[in-house]
Amino acid sequence: MNDADVSKQIQQMVRFIRQEAEEKANEISVSAEEEFNIEKLQIFEADKKKIKQEYDRKAKQVDVRKKIEYSMQLNASRIKVLQAQDDIVNSMKEAAGKDLLRVSDDNKAYKKLIKDLIVLSLMRLKEPAVLLRCREVDKKVVESVLEEAKKAYADKASASVPKVTIDDRVFLPPPPKGGDSHEPFCSGGVVLASQDGKIVCENTLDARLDVVFRQKLPEIRKHLLGQNSAS
Fold this sequence. Notes:
The chain is about 70% helix and about 10% strand. By secondary structure, the chain is α+β, with helices and mostly antiparallel strands. It has two domains: about 1-105; about 105-225, ATP synthase, E subunit, C-terminal (hypothetical protein PF0899 fold), CATH 3.30.2320. A hairpin with a 5-residue loop joins β3 and β4 (about 200-205). α2 crosses α3 (about 140-155). It starts with a helix and ends with a helix.
């Protein structure tokens, strides 16, 4: 083999090695690009998942905040309605209380009322001896009907006529003085208690008004709520 043939074979080997190197380099480049694209896609998907999770978290926060705000507004509205109802009920009670002050103006009717209240109190206590308290201005009225009330109780309860002592030292509060006075007052009526003071029957007009309003309050509120719904 002469030099020309050797040179030719060397050139062929060089071309072959170069071609293999180029093919290998091309394979490496393609593989690297594929890996890069896969990694890029994974990063994109991971970022997209994070963004979606963050969006869902913030959307949930907004939804919760809206529900809290709605609940607060609803509660505030309910409180306003209840406050308005309370104002109406209190004004009704106040008006009724003012009407009570005029009850004692009719002497005849008031005497009968005092007698009935004494009888009712005796029926509840069923004690042989009781202490009676009234307003100082009502003392004469009480004295004028006391005997009749004791006999009426004895007949109704089929019991002996009880001993009723009018308290001359402690009286119920006087009628209200008017204006914005905050002093204790009593619109009328009586309070009876057992001798030992353990059993007390409060039959003042103010106490009976409180009882009536407590009993009628659900009905009053239902009526007011019906009016609000209708309007």
